[in-house]
Design goal:
Elements: H1 16-19, E1 22-27, H2 42-54, E2 59-63, E3 75-79, E4 84-87, H3 95-106, H4 120-124, E5 126-130
Parallel strand pairs: 1-2
Antiparallel strand pairs: 1-3, 3-4, 4-5
Helix pairs in contact: 2-3
Organism: Mesorhizobium marinum
InterPro entries: DUF1636
Protein name: DUF1636 family protein
Length: 140
């Protein structure tokens, strides 16, 4: 089976050791589309929903700001030595999508989150894909 063939449902079969290499980082200070300053903020609710969906299989952490305010609720998915991903335009209910993306990422042999099987919110919400430092080239 190739990483591109893993569906979000099938991703749960990935070994827990592989999942521990992936971290979901959620901006806890993000506001929802209304711009409400109420607490808990929509970003904190997204983080809580991701943590519940992860059920301990994937690390979910928070940060005060990802600097992606124009795209509202934002999160990143990180894996050491691999590309990192930043997503925006998420909903407070997108926690399971972030976990599904993390599971796809954990099963990826090439260090990329496969497009096929990626939840729609992670397809349309992609803000940036950041390369690992080891792949950067000096300017000649």
């Amino acid at each position: 089976m190739k990483a591109d063939d893993i569906s979000p449902e099938g991703a749960s079969a990935i070994a827990p050791a592989d999942l521990s290499a992936v971290t979901v980082v959620v901006c806890a200070t993000c506001r929802d589309a209304s711009g409400s300053d109420s607490h808990p903020r929509a970003g904190a609710i997204l983080a809580r929903n991701a943590k519940l969906a992860a059920d301990g299989a994937v690390r979910v952490r928070t940060v005060e700001c990802l600097g992606n305010c124009k795209r509202r609720l934002s999160a990143a998915i990180l894996r050491d030595g691999c590309w990192s991903y930043v997503f925006g335009d998420l909903d407070a209910d997108s926690g399971p999508d972030l976990v599904a993306g993390a599971k796809l990422f954990a099963g990826s042999a090439d260090g990329l989150i496969p497009w096929r099987g990626r939840p729609d919110s992670l397809k349309r919400g992609l803000v940036a894909r950041i390369p690992p430092l080891s792949t950067l080239k000096d300017i000649a």
